[in-house]
Amino acid sequence: LIHADLKKQVHHLSPNSAAVSPHSYLRLLCVCLCLCPAVQSQNLVTDNVAVVEGEVAVISCRVKNNDDSVIQLLNPNRQTIYFRDVRPLKDARFQLVNFSDNELRVSLSNVTLSDEGRYVCQLYTDPPQEAYADITVLIPPGNPIIESREGQVIEGNETEMTCTAMGSKPAATIRWMKGDKELQGKSKVEEMYDTMFTVTSQLTFTVTKEDDGVPVVCIVDHPAVKDVQAQTYLVVHYKPEVKIVVEFPDGLPREGQNMELSCQAKGKPHPQQINWVKVDDDLPSHALITGPDLYIENLNKTYNGTYRCFAANSVGESYDDYILYVYDAPTTTPIPTTATTTTPTTTTISLPEATADSRAGEGAPRAVDHAVIGGVVAVVVFAMLCLLIILGRYFARHKGTYFTHEAKGADDAADADTAIINAEGGHNNSDEKKEYYI
């Protein structure tokens, strides 16, 4: 119609022309096409579909403002699957879900990789309209596999682990977790046949003693599956940890006491060899070693020194030291007392002993409590004062016999006055010879 109308317009514009040049004809054709009104769209729409292999895909062709035009669905090979509500294609996996003036909805069950492609929704209008739905088939990866370079790792060494997720579409992503901490690995993607992918992630880290028994998890992320993971547990070998424990005595080691030291060692593998030595000297001749324990009888100061316990396993050797300092044997100190004539009393005071561990830096005994000493001294002084008061009262009540220098010749005198008169020196000295008792 446009072409016929264009000829009329050209003839009208150039009536005297015998012919119209092709260049002028095409120019006028383009102008006419630009001026022609556009056909109103009926809004044919559809959606892309992603479906896991073996599941069901649903394709929906929807129309707005439909004027009773026919809807049909075609496969990627342009074969008609459904024309209105009729299925010309002999594939029972396609089933009609809904048909109306505004929608044609079709399901495809047991989807395979060969079903992937572009499907066409077609509306018979003038001109016809088309919309496209891309079906993407997702193939989940197989179960991930973790491999370790070595089964047992020594503390402080590096270990390397590999996680592989095979045969997925699209390619999966791999994450690593060690305990509750996420680690970063290096991933490599390898494309296989039919756009299938294999992903390998490599993880390298340095192990510590605390990593023993900690789970390492490989997590695979893929749109077709959730929570796909594999895990392994770290086995870390480490050298022994050694600690010396005093079993007895409880307090300071003193002369004459017995002592037992226990060597506590743990490691992986468990220490099989434990030895006791005395640093820069020999062990006492009668010291007894029983497994991890060292027993010493009848301590004396010649045993002072550093005692060392060694423990070893296949990883290495460790030791711990105990510094022995033998103190004097405990003693009691009696305090002299004074007894009265009525009740004899004896008081003995024992000062508290200081206690301390004889490990390095802890060998000095604790200071005696000064408050206790002050209280004891106060009691003793008070007792002595009471004793002195009692003795004074006693001697005041019991007078003694005293002899005075009486005048010679007093024995023959009739009375005292005569004796004084007859005394040596005569009457003049009588006042000087008198004695008074106060």
UniProtKB/TrEMBL annotation:
Q: How does it sit in the membrane?
A: Single-pass type I membrane protein
- UniProtKB keywords: Disulfide bond, Immunoglobulin domain, Membrane, Repeat, Signal, Transmembrane, Transmembrane helix
- Its GO CC terms? neuron projection; plasma membrane; synapse
One MF term in the entry's GO annotations: signaling receptor binding
Provide the protein's localization: Membrane
One family name in Pfam for this protein:
C2-set_2
Extract the InterPro entries matched here. CD80_C2-set, Ig-like_dom, Ig-like_dom_sf, Ig-like_fold, Ig_sub, Ig_sub2, Ig_V-set, Neurexin-like
Annotated transmembrane regions: 371-391
Signal peptide positions (record) = 1-41
Q: Name one GO biological process term.
A: cell recognition
Per the annotation, which location comes first and is thus the protein's main one?
membrane
Start and end of every Ig-like domain? 37-136, 140-229, 240-325
Q: What family is this?
A: Belongs to the nectin family.
UniProt protein name? Ig-like domain-containing protein
Give the gene name: cadm1a
